[in-house]
Specification:
The complex is a heterodimer of chains A (364) and B (130). Chain A is of the alpha+beta class. Chain A has three domains: 8-54 and 144-235, Gyrase A, domain 2; 58-141, 2-Layer Sandwich (Alpha-Beta Plaits); 283-364, Beta Barrel (Elongation Factor Tu (Ef-tu), domain 3). Chain A has helices at residues 13-18, 38-47, 67-72, 122-132, 156-161, 208-216, 226-235, 271-280; strands spanning 8-9, 22-26, 29-34, 49-53, 58-63, 86-93, 99-109, 112-117, 138-141, 146-152, 176-181, 184-189, 198-204, 221-224, 284-291, 302-305, 308-319, 324-332, 340-345, 348-355. In chain A, helix 2 crosses helix 7 (226-235). The radius of gyration of chain A is 20 Å and the shape is globular. Chain B is of the alpha+beta class. Chain B has a single domain (8-119), classed as Beta Barrel (OB fold (Dihydrolipoamide Acetyltransferase, E2P)), CATH 2.40.50.100. Helices cover 18% and strands 33% of the residues of chain B. Chain B has a six-stranded antiparallel β-sheet. In chain B, strands 4-6-7 form a three-stranded antiparallel β-sheet. In chain B, a hairpin with a 4-residue loop joins strand 1 and strand 2. The radius of gyration of chain B is 13 Å and the shape is globular. Chain B starts with 7 loop residues before the first strand and ends with a helix. Classes of the chains: A alpha+beta (364), B alpha+beta (130). Chains A and B meet through helix 2 of A and strand 4 and strand 6 of B.
Chain lengths: 364, 130
């Protein structure tokens, strides 16, 4: 059994134990990987609603008169174009164009931005901000004093509506609003990492149980762990930093070129390197794979075209909604337009279809 | 789940059920299937393949992870559970019955005695085995 003594615990740790969660070490935290079964939890999010504790994520506010300009210079996406109550998905690059983190930024006001950071990258992002941020703005790390829950699934709006006076119908995708949920002051955002309709809730850690218990009380909601969060995000074609992208990959080869606003923006960290990469052409490109034969694709497996190694998988799993194995991986330029490749599973070549993610899109 | 009295167990959590005719039916224990989680694919050997004890003879894939299967005894595969091709979840639902994996013609029936009996396996699990 893995020792969990040295791991940090989230404020809802005791609740997870009481609910019978199987805990796993993740980014220095002991986190629930599943409560019942990854498959059941996955399918519940696609059909009803699931509640995730994602408090291990980093929550950092950048505050001050020049907060927007200061953050804009750190990001590839156009932070200046954000209006109050809107969210933006972006990457933060190092001067070489490598991805330090991919994150969601919420604009709470013209001098207050909330950055939602990958758990494993909290230190890297903090030191990156410390090194490159300029202007009249300060960092307020709210990761320990707040919690973050994700309520995801087609029933999520109906469920959340029972606990808030906020007009959730007018809260469109990638918008956020401050209000009360179960009597607790909460930032409610229509964001998520599942490819399903849903919300993320940010509120004080001291109130963690109040909101968690209230939402879980609904018969349409089940507790969901990080296991199905990973399979849900993969079906939705959402990338995982540390796996599909990292400081050695750039946003252009990762298919995140739409997050890099060369035209709309002035200088930003990584700009020169990314311009060079764009004009020089890509060496490889991230594609999606659907296994045609039997088996399950896993990260690290070799991708072959006509017997020649042309890349490797960065993500791979069984996809419960699709009832097939799907994966993401980089294919060398020259082979990235192939519609079929082989994936080597324990020495056996298994045919896979090459697709553009997402693998799953919810019906609207 | 009750551990079947007459089954024998390996340290890798395979069970072997002595059919009394020189063959054993082999599967994975309740503990093993529970630790793996939702099983989505079982890679089985071909009938006629022979294995030494502790050779890996197949693979179990769950949503989250992949795990080798180790032969609890030496011998030749005389049957595989074809139902698992379309319903690998049988290993979760019925690890000791419908979720059996292969049947092996033993080349050295004495090896059965070297496996743990149900009581020893239970103690082995209580000892914090993975």
């Amino acid at each position: 059994m893995t020792k969990t003594a040295s791991l940090k615990e989230v404020p809802l740790h005791q609740r997870h134990i009481e609910l019978g969660a199987r805990m796993t070490p993740f980014a220095g935290y002991s986190m629930p990987v599943q409560y019942s079964s990854i498959k059941d939890e996955h399918l519940a999010v696609r059909s009803l609603a699931g509640l995730f504790d994602v408090s291990h994520m980093g929550r950092v506010e950048i505050k001050g008169p020049q907060a927007v300009e200061a953050v804009d210079r750190l990001m590839t996406n156009d932070v200046k174009s954000l209006r109050d109550g809107k969210a933006l998905y972006t990457v933060m690059c190092n001067p070489e164009g490598g991805i330090v983190d991919d994150l969601v930024i919420y604009r709470l006001s013209h001098k207050r931005l909330l950055l939602c950071i990958n758990a494993a990258n909290r230190e890297a992002v903090a030191s990156h901000i410390d090194r490159y941020m300029v202007g009249d703005a300060e960092v307020d790390d709210r990761s320990e004093s707040t919690v973050q829950l994700a309520l995801q699934g087609p029933k999520s709006k109906e469920v959340l509506g029972q606990y808030t006076e906020l007009d959730l119908d007018s809260l469109k995708f990638f918008r956020c609003v401050e209000g009360e949920v179960a009597g607790v002051a909460t930032l409610v955002a229509r964001t998520g990492y599942t490819g399903e309709a849903g919300f993320e809730l940010y509120f004080p850690a001291a109130q963690a149980k109040v909101v968690w218990d209230a939402l879980l009380d609904s018969p349409d909601v089940i507790a969901c762990g990080l296991g199905c969060r990973d399979t849900l995000r993969l079906e939705a074609g959402l990338l995982l930093h540390g796996q599909d992208i990292d400081a050695s990959t750039d946003p252009l080869e990762a298919g995140l070129g739409w997050l890099v606003k060369f035209d709309a923006k002035g200088d930003f960290v990584g700009r020169k390197a990314l311009e060079k990469i764009q004009s020089g052409g890509l060496n490889r490109r991230l594609r999606g794979f659907v296994l045609e034969g039997r088996g399950v694709m896993r990260p690290g497996y070799t991708i072959e075209s006509e017997g020649e190694a042309v890349g490797a998988l960065t993500s791979g799993s069984y996809a419960p909604t699709l009832e097939a194995s799907i994966g993401l991986g980089y294919i060398d330029s020259g082979f990235d337009d192939r519609s079929r490749v082989d994936v080597v599973i324990r020495g056996r070549r298994v045919e896979a279809r090459v697709v553009d993610p997402p693998f799953y899109e919810r019906s609207k | 789940m009750e551990i079947p009295e007459k089954y024998r167990f390996s340290q890798q959590h395979e069970w072997a059920d002595d059919e009394g005719d020189g063959t054993v039916t082999v599967g994975i224990s309740h503990h093993a299937q529970d630790a793996l989680g939702d099983i989505v694919f079982v890679e089985m050997p071909a009938v006629g393949e022979a294995f030494d004890r502790e050779d890996d003879f197949g693979v179990v894939e769950s949503v989250k992870t992949v795990s080798d299967l180790y032969a609890p005894v030496s011998g030749e595969v005389i049957a595989v559970n074809e139902a698992l091709e379309d319903a690998p979840e049988l290993v979760n639902e019925s690890p000791y019955e419908n979720g059996w994996i292969v049947r092996i013609q033993m080349s050295d029936p004495g090896e059965l005695e070297e496996l743990m009996d149900a009581d020893s396996y239970e103690e082995f699990l209580d000892g914090g085995a993975q």
